Known about the structure:
Blueprint lengths: L21 E2 L2 E5 L5 E3 L9 H5 L2 H11 L4 H11 L3 H5 L4 H11 L2 H11 L3 H5 L4 H11 L2 H11 L3 H5 L4 H11 L6 H8 L2 H5 L2 H13 L3 H13 L1 H5 L4 H11 L2 H12 L2 H5 L4 H11 L2 H12 L6 H7 L4 H11 L2 H13 L11
Antiparallel strand pairs: 1-2, 2-3
Amino acid sequence: MDEIDDSQNPGFPPPSPTKENWRNQYYAYRSPSGEIHYLLLSDFYGHLVKTSEDVIGSRFIKKKLQTATIEDKNEAFKELKPHALALMKDKFGSRVIKSFFEHGLDLQRKGLAEELFGNVYTLSLDQYGCRVIQKALELVDMDQKIKIVRELDNHVNTCLYDDKASHVIRKCVECVPEEHIGVIVSVCVDQIVKLAQHTPGNYILQSILKYCKNTLTQKRVIDGIVSSLVILANNGFGNYVVQCAVEHGKPEDRSKIVEKLAENIVEVSLNRFGSGAIQKCLVFGSHCDRKLILNVILGSTDRNEPLQTIVKGQSGKFVVRTLLKTCDDEQRELILLRIKIHCLEKYLPQED
């Protein structure tokens, strides 16, 4: 290992760390007497704030916190806590704070969470602060999680459409019991169609579908999706909400979606996004759901016009392939027969 000659700088600790004096994830320091010293967390007492704001210094502290003694953690926490809010908004300091949430003592996690209160909304809008809030929602006690949610109740609508704060809202849905996020759910449900077509918004709706099991909530979400189902299924973001509803919804909700999509089977199947929603229905739907889709695709006459149109489409052909994979043997034989009659084999995609 290359040694660092710092004999010209007898001060301790060494100057702001750089890539040049970083070796094997530890600082190596040559004292004036010539001894090589691998720095410990305790060597930076009195300099932890500045070190936390440095790219390699923050990495050093994070590494040391994983194996630090209780005494070292207490001493480091005592020094960093008065500056916690500023560090939460710093690119590298925020990483140290998140590491304290992960590896700190229970009382230290509670103490850091207390620093959040009164600043949850502003931190949620911050590029680095929002990540600290998310980490806190994963690891702090439930009563503190609920307090975090309460601070956001009056700002939910703003947070939903913010690239950073929307991740905090999503984490609230995933980490806090449903009875404590009523405001968040209500605001989301009231604007499902708009939210589903928004980049971060569609992820929040997916989390609500996965984690909120209240019957009334589920019904309101499904009804909102079904009211504009074709628009959402054919949308670049909305289709993921439809697919999530199909995968995680109740059988009766899934059937409601299948029936609505079946009414527009050609339009949706030919759409690059909508075809994914149809395929999800075939994979997670019941036998009756698949049969309904099959009957609509085959059409009511021997010409099988929907089948011919769909299989020739760039996206539609994948719907037909998924249909062949998910139907029973009798249905598969019928589809293949119709494909052969109309000489459509060349349009089917090759197996991966």
